[in-house]
Amino acid sequence: MEVTLSNKKQAWMHAIRLRTLPLALSSILMGSFLAAYQEEFRFWVFLLAAITTVFLQILSNLANDYGDSIHGADSAEREGPIRAVQSGIISLEEMKKAMVFLGVLSFVSGIILLFISLQDWKIFFLFLGLGIAAIVAAVTYTSGSKPYGYAGLGDISVFLFFGLLGVLGTYFLHSLSFDWSIVLPAVSLGFFSTAVLNINNIRDIKADTLAGKKSIPVRIGRKNAVVYNWVLIFGGNLFLILFAIMNQTYGCLIALAALPGMVFVGRSVASKIEAWELDPYLKKMAISTLLWVLAFGIGILFF
Predict the structure, then answer these.
(1) Long-range contact pairs involving 208-214 (C-beta distance under 8 Å, separation at least 24)
(2) How wide is the angle at C-alpha 242 spanned by C-alphas 240 and 247, nearest 5°?
(3) pLDDT tens digit string along 139-156?
(4) Which residues, 6 or more positions from 268, have their beta carbon under 8 angstroms from its beta carbon?
(5) Which ranges constitute the DSSP H helices of the chain?
(6) Is the pLDDT confidence value at 254 over 80?
(7) Which of 278, 148, 149 is nearest to 226 (CA)?
(8) Buried/exposed 209-221: b ≥16 CB within 10 Å, e otherwise
(9) Which domains does the chain have, with CATH numbers?
(10) Residues of 14-45 as b/e, b for ≥16 C-beta within 10 angstroms?
């Protein structure tokens, strides 16, 4: 393929995967909404946390493109969207340089965030360690000699970083305090984010099996992976209801308005077999999750 400026730019846009960014920002929004509900919201914390999260998500996407190309998941048998390195438009060396650049941006942005947010040096270094862990997790999901995504641990990582750590960490940076009740909506968001990954992995079962990538759907089979998807969707909404009951703040139940969209996604994932048919539902689940978070925020702050 002749490489032109146009298709090179398009390849980078594919590698960045803009459609994943709203989902990545959902945890920052959720933590910030909860902080605002407690009258602890700080604008600069929100802005810097959002910027850092975007950098980390792009780094993860580039590393995923790079790692899957090296380990064989982005082979000719892969039926999802063509990856940038797989296509040959972007070289491995170019992708590595971009990953280093995004890693530096993530680190610098995170350091500024922590300097603005924290006064206690012990807590500063604790969050610094978590930030470094997030960068390492982003890179080693499919890259390195033993990528944890190939061992089926991606779901745990997504649940932790997009759910618990993302929400609880953002809330703490705003408020400098911890509230056990916010674990419940953090779990909800972790479930929905994991559902997005699960749909991705159901789509890629064939290619992942050939590449030796033992994702959850590869391990338990498509039928059970669909059941797992339903558990994530309904489980996330159940934790929302528990949060509303425990805190007697029922306005947040407006978020249940997003449930029909999630059910539509779940039914489509259950009924559609071909990879190209499943691919649009990653975006639909991510958008449903973002709408759920926005509705949660509106409900908890204004009703």
Answers:
(1) 208/73, 210/72, 210/75, 210/77, 211/68, 211/71, 211/72, 211/73, 211/75, 211/150, 212/71, 212/72, 212/150, 213/71, 213/73, 213/142, 213/149, 213/150, 214/150, 214/151, 214/152
(2) 100
(3) 887 776 677 878 888 899
(4) 278, 281, 284
(5) 5-16, 21-37, 43-71, 84-87, 92-117, 121-140, 154-158, 165-175, 183-203, 205-211, 216-220, 222-247, 259-271, 275-278, 280-302
(6) yes
(7) 278
(8) eebebebbbbeee
(9) 7-302 (1.10.600)
(10) bbbbeebbbbbbbbbbbbbbbbbbeebbbeeb
Q: Which amino acid is at 179?
A: D
Please give the structure tokens belonging to residue 215: 């994702």
Q: Is the pLDDT of residue 3 over 70?
A: no
DSSP letter for each residue of 243-266 = HHHHHT-GGGGGGGGGHHHHHHHH
- Residue 78 clears pLDDT 50, i.e. is over it: no
Measured in whole angstroms, the distance separating CA 267 from the mean position of its chain's CA atoms is: 22
User: What letters, b where the CB count within 10 A reaches 16 and e where it falls short, cover 227-257?
Assistant: ebbbebbebbbebbbebbeebeeebbbbbbe
